[in-house]
Amino acid sequence: MENHSYSEVANAPYLSSFASRGTLFTNYHANTHPSLPNYMAMTSGKLLCNGSDSCPRDSFANNNIFRQATYYGVSWKAWEESMPSNCDPQDSGQYAVRHNPPPYYTDINPSPCSTNDVPLPSSPSLARFNFVTPDVCSDMHSCSVSTGDTWLSKHVPAYLADGAIVIITFDEDDHSSGNHVYTAEVGPGVPVKHDAGSYTHYNLLGGLEKYFGFGTLGNAVGKTPLPV
Q1: pLDDT digits (tens, 9 = 90+) for 180-212
Q2: What dihedral do alpha carbons 149, 191, 101, 45 form, nearest 10°?
Q3: Phi and psi dihedrals of 55, rounded to 5?
Q4: What percent of the chain has pLDDT over 70?
Q5: Of residues 33, 13, 7, the one with CA closest to residue 201
Q6: Are 149 and 12 in contact (CB under 8 A)?
Q7: Where are the strands (E) in the chain, listed by range?
Q8: Is the link from the previous residue into 37 a cis peptide, with omega within 30 of 0?
Q9: In angstroms, rounded to a whole number, what is the distance separating the alpha carbons of residues 102 and 86?
């Protein structure tokens, strides 16, 4: 999700209900501004892009969690709402490529990005690792908190019903709270509690890598893995 502080969204009906069913990370902060470097941080352990949303696609040779998944034989999909075609490198309508990390990494382009970075259907057949990005209305970037909360309420229950562990996070805040953002996790084995540990997108990456048995990348090294 996009561009809202923890305090702006934590009481939204679905996000509040979701957090009550699992672990709410009450001290989770995004790494920087604007959007794209945060997406790079949570998938490669590096900010990249020098504080810009305008980096060229297919330009970063940094190792990343998608390449790791391919190497270790873990099936993955990046599901992108409103994307016109697989691994699309250009903005189109409500689709923003800056919210879709795979097209930026040279080591997964053109394949497996062209196969695994795909438009989000109404009922996706989940892989083992799934990176789901709503479009710029559904993610609260250009539409209301209520719109995004309703979108989550229509999509997330199906993922949980399939037995997935679901983590909902925001790329960054709206510059109002020191980048304090909502992050919560629900699924099999996830305890119901508030976790006040200090986490960022690097910890999230490290937690996913630990869960899947991957090595640790970039600035996730030495960070406490987010419990997954």
Answers
A1: 999 999 999 999 999 999 999 999 999 999 999
A2: 140
A3: -70, 145
A4: 100
A5: 33
A6: yes
A7: 23-25, 76-80, 117-119, 129-133, 166-169, 183-186, 193-195
A8: no
A9: 11
Amino acid 50: pLDDT: 79
Range of the domain at 10: 6-174+198-220
Does residue 188 lie in a domain region? no
18 confidence band (pLDDT: 50, 70, 90): very high
Asked which of 59-63, 158-162, 175-179 is least confident by mean pLDDT, the reply is: 59-63
Separation of alpha carbons 131 and 192, rounded Å: 23
**C-alpha Rg value of the chain to the nearest Å:** 16
Round to whole Å and give the CA distance between 190 and 42: 21
In which band, very low, low, confident or very high, does the pLDDT at 49 lie, cut at 50, 70 and 90? confident
Question: Greatest CA span in the chain, whole angstroms?
Answer: 42
150 assigned to some structural domain:
yes
183: left (phi over 0), alpha (psi -120 to 50) or beta: beta
Residue 183 lies in a domain: no
* pLDDT surpasses 90 at 51: no
Pick from 180, 188, 143: which is nearest to 164 by CA?
188
Res 10 pLDDT > 90? yes
Number of domains in the chain: 1
Tokens of 101: 């990390």
Q: Which two tokens stand for residue 196?
A: 């006040």
